[in-house]
UniProtKB/TrEMBL annotation:
UniProt name for this protein: Polyhydroxyalkanoic acid system family protein
Entry-linked InterPro entries: PHA_gran_rgn (IPR013433)
Organism: Tsuneonella litorea
Matches recorded under Pfam families: PHA_gran_rgn
Length: 101
């Protein structure tokens, strides 16, 4: 599954906002989830996600005009892909929102 979230921010600002909102990433996943994140490179955040009895690994790539979330869904979750993709798209603005100080 690949979900693109468009933005009009500088890449530095996108990274800053993603890092600031990391604690709430699980809240943006339908049904809630346990999420741990890492930044193996400047423009890639990896996420280890535990949801619906499944463990997933996702990548979030920061691009000039969009943030792209990529995850391979196991067959047991393939049927919910449209729901997950829709939720990510609708919640993407919150994930990229300015952090609350």
């Amino acid at each position: 599954m690949r979900v693109a979230i468009p933005h009009q921010l500088e890449k530095d600002e996108v990274r800053r906002r993603l890092k600031a909102n990391t604690e709430s990433v699980g809240d943006h996943i339908p049904g809630g989830a346990g999420v741990s994140t890492a930044w193996p490179s400047e423009d890639r955040m990896t996420m280890d996600i535990s949801a619906m009895g499944q463990s997933l690994r996702a990548n979030v790539d920061v691009e000039a005009n969009q943030v792209v979330l990529s995850v391979d869904l196991p067959p047991a979750l393939a049927f919910v892909e449209p729901m997950i993709a829709g939720a990510i798209r609708s919640q993407g603005d919150r994930l990229l929102a300015p952090p609350k100080d």
